[in-house]
# Entry
Amino acid sequence: MRLILLGAPGAGKGTQAEILCKEFSIPTISTGNILRVAIKNGTPTGLKAKSFMDAGKLVPDDVIIGVITDRLAESDCANGYILDGVPRTIAQAEALEKAGINFDDVVSIEISDQEIKERMAGRRVCEHCGASYHVVAVPPKNEGVCDKCGGKLSRRHDDDPEVVQQRLEVYHKETEPLKDFYKSRGVLKSVENQPTVTATSQAILHALGR
Ligand code: AMP
# Structure
């Protein structure tokens, strides 16, 4: 299964991807997580990406296309994958198509901007493995510690309210047009965000016919 999760920043793509990748035994690929690791390690890609990410802007398409095509060529992607946060522009989607990478399903998680803003304030992310938590909705077993790897949980700089506003604007302008792009390919499924993480997972599985 080759699946894309679309949706605004904070829509719950990362959380749902973690659940779905266990269900289907395929990896989740998050360009945001790959870039955060690159920044932490001070790699050339990280150096290119940092200022854009700090400002809530998109990292240039050429950087992303390189990162994602390299990652999809790794052996663990042979049986499928879930993409979280990529593609984010029409140019990225076209580049994937041009590289012969096509998708079985594209799920768009629908949620209002207001709900996103309220939600982002409570998000916490593992500095080590990138797993995502929420202080109220998805708390870790021990405060500040990742359940999966024991890494330290912290707030992302780009979850600050002004940066969230900027990221929402970028989402509506650059990423939302992907819904029409994939609708025209006959693979788009829209799923309304539900009151709980589990209910949203069930809605996604239902949309996927599982
Ligand atoms: P995310 O973790 O998916 O919310 O991504 C965090 C930030 O990383 C974004 O605000 C962008 O600056 C950058 N980023 C991640 N994925 C992409 C992408 N596919 N295209 C451009 N920028 C990206």
Observations:
- Residues 11 and 115 are 9 Å apart (CA to CA).
- The mean pLDDT is 95.
- The first strand starts at residue 2 and ends at 7.
